[in-house]
Amino acid sequence: MYNAAYYAWRKGDAVEAVQLSRRALDVRKKILGPEHKGTLTSMGMAGLVHGLGTRWKEAEELQVQVMETSKRVLGEEHPHTLTSMNNLALTYQNQGRWKEAEKLQVQAMETSKRVLGEEHPHTLTSMNNLASTYRNQGRWKEAEELQVQAMETRK
Question: Model-level pTM?
Answer without folding.
Answer: 0.88
